Amino acid sequence: MRLLIALMAIVFSTSLAHARNIDVSGMWLGSYQYDSAPSRVPVITAMVIEQNGQSLSARMIEENTSQNPKLVGRPSRLTGFINGKSITLLKTYDDGAESIEYRFEVSVIDGNKQIQGTWQLANMTGSAEYMQIKF
What's the pTM value of the predicted model, to 2 decimals? Predict the structure, then answer.
């Protein structure tokens, strides 16, 4: 019985150590979708995440979703943190058109190559999914 408890403790502590060592730094390509308009085409985005310990910062570009037809893409900044495989990001557009904050709650899956989860802005919600791009 003691051996079983010791083995379980080793497996659990190894899992925690592995979860703490997740590094999501790099380029990610993906999209987000609106729950209220499932037939709407997903918004394609690309982002570069920098990780410093548990702190995250990112730059994102997406297709033009603003009211300004002169913009080619729509840039934003994201800040947040990672806790195990759970990521929380706050996104703020910085294109001068408007300042909107989105909250992303996502998880790292598939051997740390994929991020999936949800986003929220006031009463709007949706899903988000990203794949890490390696060069």
Answer: 0.77
